[in-house]
């Protein structure tokens, strides 16, 4: 006999449970859903447009009911948003109350505890400059005033608002495309947002990527200098995990992989393509460069995810080594990289955070010094101010160690090797130190009012010290200037350091060439500048022809020749009143003649070399004719000023320092040469010659 409880249970009304799943309106059109295609949600969408099925491109409308009732959902979202706003208001009130209770320093900054193992003696100060917070995979820098919680709450508020907007019924609202301003570098091209599936389909097969990764980490044979900011064993472990399930790979890490592939293609394009990539390296470089940008957009560089700065920095390496002149775009891009690194706390030494392992700490130091180096380099090349010139960072230099000395289970860093032992990190450190001195030149040249001459001498001494401190294996030696005899070629890294040093001397002292002939006080600058110019032009003897394809190499060589022509014009206008020893005018003309011969040969590999050759050979011919017609026993016969082919009349030297109408030496500190206008002339579209 059934129990009474069973009878009562059978008589009780049964509850009907509804599924808690939201019946969301499909966002794709009906044809795309049936074909399982990605719909761009336009009306009509691109898929229906391509198939000429515009009429069938229809979207499902929201249905009435409790699950999709807009008013009910909006009311619920408003309540959630109101709670967020109230919470945010409470946070602000609490912070205000805390600030009123804490003692204030004379600078108006809250007092706080000093950091352990800080480089600066923080224990002697009540100033708390902030700290780096490692939260899971995120690395976030919290400033001196603790607004981090407020910012987090605002982010949650934005997330709730975004969910509220996504849940609203979709009518005739076109989707917003994520386009970026036009330009030459990452984040400045017409980059449209895409999804991860499309990015993954762009990757080559694994066996091809394996070869490219091996080529990238082969530092002894890879032709482009790569900053050692990736721990190869760690990266290879993550690389293996990626191929196990590519869909789980983060967009930022995928951007890092694409940046590595793009640098490989750039190396093939510039230094020779293997058979597998013959005729394809340039187009693949542009594709992988685009994919890097799209990955960083999807991953959002503001989210402080791992490998964000590494991906940005390697992309900057690709931009820096391009043949075309993208110096201004690179300079703007480095500002983004520096600020993203500061946002993640790279400017503070990792020893201040106990949650950062020794391996992570050392690579954070490498990343930060590489960020400073690219900022100094971009500013030096374009002549604009640096971002990292302030005293807001205390990150130590990385140690001179090999990658194999560092591991994940490391508990204490090994001692640094001497700089005389050239590891990949030694070149990074030496180059960063040299750029620190070159950055002082950039800062000085950007001062609105010119500083005292003594300051230039101080900068010059700092530059000399940075150059002399370079390890012997990173400096060029006499036998490398004539490798046809010695058989020893200089490495591209050593050549770059030598070029940068002498280019810095020219930028610092070129304004005093004219004054050095009138006032012995400035003769040091004149001699230093001419000596470095002669060294720069000597590089043409050891440069491979393809180097003329690089705009920066052409600009440095052209500027060097221009300085010698100006020195010759100074000598013609005013004899040397000082008892200095420098190359004679005939020697300078011989150097310029040799330089023009190299430019003539380079015409076969670079169209711009042909334009440069026409200009310099015309100037050389004019000076040779003038000197040949002059007799030592007679004063020089005045000659018409040389005119630059293709240069506008406002920039012609005949209107300034080459004219006999005025005392041209007293008209300007730089022989009446506007070096900014000259730089624009060299890099701009006006650098044209008539056939």
UniProtKB/TrEMBL annotation:
* Coiled-coil residues: none
Task: Name one matching Pfam family.
Answer: Fungal_trans
Compositionally biased residues, Polar residues: 120-129
Q: Which GO terms describe its molecular function?
A: DNA-binding transcription activator activity, RNA polymerase II-specific; RNA polymerase II cis-regulatory region sequence-specific DNA binding; zinc ion binding
Q: Which PROSITE patterns match?
A: ZN2_CY6_FUNGAL_1, ZN2_CY6_FUNGAL_2
The cross-references to InterPro entries, in alphabetical order and at most eight, read: Fungal_TF_Env_Response, XnlR_reg_dom, Zn2-C6_fun-type_DNA-bd_sf, Zn2Cys6_DnaBD
A single Gene Ontology biological process assigned to it is: DNA-templated transcription
Q: Where is this region: Disordered?
A: 1-23, 59-79, 103-131, 626-650
Query: Which GO CC annotations does the UniProt entry carry?
Result: nucleus
- The answer to whether the entry has keyword DNA-binding is yes
Question: Which keywords are on file for this protein?
Answer: DNA-binding, Metal-binding, Nucleus, Transcription, Transcription regulation, Zinc
Please state every residue range assigned to the domain named Zn(2)-C6 fungal-type: 28-59
Query: Does this UniProt record's set of keywords contain rRNA-binding?
Result: no
Name of the molecule in the record: Zn(2)-C6 fungal-type domain-containing protein
């Amino acid at each position: 006999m059934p129990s009474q409880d069973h009878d009562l249970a059978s008589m009780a009304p049964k509850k009907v449970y509804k599924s808690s799943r939201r019946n969301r309106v499909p966002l794709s059109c009906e044809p795309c859903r049936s074909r399982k295609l990605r719909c761009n949600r336009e009306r009509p969408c691109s898929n229906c447009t391509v198939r000429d099925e515009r009429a069938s491109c229809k979207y499902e409308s929201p249905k009435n009911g409790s699950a999709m009732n807009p008013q009910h959902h909006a009311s619920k979202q408003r309540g959630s948003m109101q709670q967020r706003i109230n919470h945010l208001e409470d946070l602000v009130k609490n912070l205000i109350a805390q600030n009123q209770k804490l003692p204030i320093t004379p600078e108006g900054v809250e007092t706080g505890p000093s950091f352990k193992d800080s480089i600066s003696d923080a224990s002697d100060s009540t100033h708390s400059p902030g700290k780096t917070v490692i939260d899971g995979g995120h690395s976030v820098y919290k400033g001196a005033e603790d607004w981090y919680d407020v910012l987090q709450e605002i982010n949650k508020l934005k997330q709730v608002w975004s969910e509220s907007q996504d849940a609203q019924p979709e009518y005739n609202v076109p989707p917003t495309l994520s386009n970026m301003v036009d330009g030459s570098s990452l984040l400045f091209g017409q980059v449209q947002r895409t999804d991860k599936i499309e990015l993954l389909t762009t990757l080559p097969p694994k066996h091809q990527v394996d070869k490219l990764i091996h080529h990238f980490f082969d530092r002894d044979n890879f032709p482009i200098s790569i900053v050692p900011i990736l721990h190869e064993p760690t990266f290879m472990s993550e690389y293996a995990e990626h191929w196990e399930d590519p869909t789980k790979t983060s967009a930022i890490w995928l951007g890092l992989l694409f940046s590595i592939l793009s640098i490989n293609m750039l190396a093939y394009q510039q230094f020779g393509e293997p058979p597998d990539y013959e005729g394809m390296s340039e187009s693949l470089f542009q594709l992988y460069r685009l994919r890097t940008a799209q990955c960083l957009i999807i991953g959002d560089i503001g989210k402080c995810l791992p490998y964000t700065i590494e991906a940005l920095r390697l992309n900057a390496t690709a931009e820096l080594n391009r043949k075309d002149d993208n110096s201004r775009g690179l300079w703007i891009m480095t500002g983004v990289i520096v600020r993203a690194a500061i946002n993640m706390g790279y400017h503070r030494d990792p020893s201040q955070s106990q949650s950062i392992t020794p391996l992570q700490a050392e690579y954070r130091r490498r990343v930060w010094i590489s960020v400073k180096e690219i900022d100094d380099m971009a500013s030096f090349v374009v002549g604009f101010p640096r971002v990292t010139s302030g005293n807001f960072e205390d990150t130590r230099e990385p140690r001179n160690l090999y990658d194999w000395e560092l591991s994940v289970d490391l508990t204490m860093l090994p001692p640094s090797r001497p700089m005389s032992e050239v590891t990949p990190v030694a070149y990074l450190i030496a180059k960063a130190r040299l750029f620190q001195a070159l950055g002082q030149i950039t800062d000085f040249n950007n001062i609105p009012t010119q500083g005292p001459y003594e300051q230039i001498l101080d900068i010059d001494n700092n530059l000399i010290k940075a150059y002399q401190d370079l390890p012997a294996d990173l400096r060029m030696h006499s036998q490398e200037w004539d490798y046809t005899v010695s058989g020893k070629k200089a490495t591209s890294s050593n050549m770059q350091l030598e070029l940068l040093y002498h280019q810095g001397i020219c930028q610092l002292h070129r304004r005093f060439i004219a004054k050095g002939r009138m006032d012995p006080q400035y003769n040091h600058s004149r001699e230093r500048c001419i000596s470095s110019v002669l060294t720069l032009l000597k590089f043409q003897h050891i440069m491979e022809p393809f180097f003329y394809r690089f705009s920066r190499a052409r600009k440095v060589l052209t500027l060097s020749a221009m300085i010698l022509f100006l020195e010759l014009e100074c000598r013609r206008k005013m004899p040397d009143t000082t008892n200095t020893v420098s190359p004679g005018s005939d020697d300078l003309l011989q150097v310029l003649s040799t330089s023009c011969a190299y430019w003539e040969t380079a015409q076969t590999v670079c169209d711009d070399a042909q334009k440069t050759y026409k200009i310099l050979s015309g100037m050389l011919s004019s000076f040779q004719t003038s000197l040949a017609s002059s007799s030592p026993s007679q004063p020089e016969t005045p000659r018409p000023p040389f005119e630059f082919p293709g240069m506008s009349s406002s920039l012609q030297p005949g209107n300034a320092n080459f004219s006999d109408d005025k005392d041209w030496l007293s008209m300007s500190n730089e022989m009446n040469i506007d070096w900014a206008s000259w730089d624009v002339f060299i890099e701009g579209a006006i650098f044209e010659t008539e056939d």
